[in-house]
Amino acid sequence: MTTPQNARIALVTGASGGIGRAVAQRLVADGFAVAVHYAGNKTKADDLVGEIIESGGQAIAVGGDVADEQAMQAAFAAVEQAFGGVDVVVNTAGVMLLGRVAEYSLDDFDRIVRTNLRGAFVVSQQAARSVRAGGAIINFSTSVTRTQFPTYGPYVATKAAVESLSLILARELRGRDITVNAVAPGPTATALFLEGKSDEAVQGLAAAVPLERLGQPDDIAETVAFLAGPARWVNGQTIFTNGGLA
Questions:
Q1: What are the chain's domains?
Q2: Is the dihedral of CA 19, 39, 118, 177 positive or negative?
């Protein structure tokens, strides 16, 4: 597959739904060719690729467990083979398993650590090896690292680690002209966020935001587009995209 001259290439993990889907669509609108990554839902990924191609953009689907280094090596290789390189990696893939520390299942803990932390490390490692000069690596934290809501302990533990990993990687890539940042969304209306929450709980979280609404995936994609494109002087930072949630 050939790409237009000077086109930039992005790999978006977890792009088959939620924030990842909105990010992929926004980057395509900004002129990127996009690799739509999925872990389990190939149909959704293929549907998004079809929509992008039908609208005149360029996209491929790549699959694999983000915590499996061989699967991610294969995914990055597929992107490079299809488009000639990788300029931006956006790692939105993650799971949210809530519960109080005292009762939390260690099986769930192992699962959330594997996907959210090991997965972010594996993707960041491959990105650090593959992203071209002028590129960007964008990982995902959460605003709950600051709000510290009960039942979010294991989830926040993984995301705080990802945040620190990202900021250190930015410094390790000195001289490469590659930015590394983390985006920390507030309460955002995705299936991942809404699952298991009562209407009352959702309304309470929306009311806690000064803008008095939940974020939308497009709100988060706006920040990613900024970091992936014009924000060349923003590096080693965590951007809280949360409507002012304190």
A1: 9-239 (3.40.50.720)
A2: negative
